[in-house]
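Task: sequence design from structure.
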């Protein structure tokens, strides 16, 4: 049950105080499962949820999961990050990441993959430094919390410039493309599909999911379309037939960026 060894499209949250749901989540088509100690767990259950999760990790060494710990600004952070010592914890999701200090605190326990959540103004201001920190695999955009912190109203378009910067910071740091935030209305499939397509268009590679019903929509949206795959195959066939000579396809010259795009589409499709 390894869910995080390859770049993921869908990241499914599961409350840490509901261990009966863990294996059900792992059995879905989600590329990664995040056991959540933060927003999904009431304050009075924070400690007991951590203990239940530790016991489950001991009992299920074959199950690879990610954990979202509580923020470093809380009383639960230090005990939460101790869970990084379990070998079946493949990554730590760090909420409200604002500097590399929080990342370093986790790495003192174990050299483990880190997914910083950018969801505060200070975190966004430091996003390029955070992206370049050791063991950071990909940035995640905590769009809901960020919008609240910024006292913003509206929807996806109001956060466009911030999403662009997170994609740029990821590219500059040569890490995986970032992961977009949740769509709160999980019953509105059209909205989930629309916001996932918008994220894909901006250069995001995945999306956080709060309900299993969102997983297949996210996976299918991030998967290259048949039209994209056909185009990529035709480009590569044209390049191969040219045997190193300059060549055009559909009236446009095929240069290196076009070839790399075609190869990326075929890789994602496979």
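Answer:
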């Amino acid at each position: 049950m390894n869910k995080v060894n390859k770049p993921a499209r869908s990241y499914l949250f599961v409350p840490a105080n509901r261990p009966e749901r863990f294996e059900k989540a792992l059995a879905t088509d989600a590329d990664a499962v995040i056991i959540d100690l933060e927003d999904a767990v009431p304050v009075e259950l924070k400690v007991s949820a951590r203990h239940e999760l530790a016991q489950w990790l001991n009992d299920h060494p074959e199950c690879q999961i990610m954990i979202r710990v509580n923020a470093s600004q809380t009383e639960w952070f230090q005990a939460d990050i101790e869970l990084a010592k379990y070998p079946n914890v493949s990554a730590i999701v760090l909420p409200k990441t604002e500097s590399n200090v929080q990342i370093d605190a986790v790495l003192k326990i174990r050299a483990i993959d880190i997914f910083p959540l950018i969801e505060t103004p200070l975190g966004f201001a430091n996003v390029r430094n955070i992206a370049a920190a050791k063991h950071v695999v990909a940035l995640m955009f905590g769009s809901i919390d960020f919008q609240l912190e910024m006292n913003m109203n509206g929807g996806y378009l109001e956060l466009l410039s911030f999403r662009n910067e997170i994609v740029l910071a990821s590219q500059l740091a040569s890490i995986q493309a970032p992961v977009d935030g949740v769509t709160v209305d999980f019953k509105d499939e059209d909205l989930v599909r629309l916001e996932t397509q918008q994220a894909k268009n901006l250069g995001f590679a995945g999306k956080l999911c709060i309900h299993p019903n969102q997983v297949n929509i996210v996976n299918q949206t991030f998967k290259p379309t048949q039209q994209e795959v056909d185009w990529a195959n035709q480009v590569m066939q044209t390049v191969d037939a040219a045997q190193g000579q300059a060549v055009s396809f559909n009236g446009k010259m095929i240069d290196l960026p076009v070839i790399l795009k075609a190869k990326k589409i075929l890789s994602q499709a496979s």
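Residues 186 and 200 are 18 Å apart (CA to CA).
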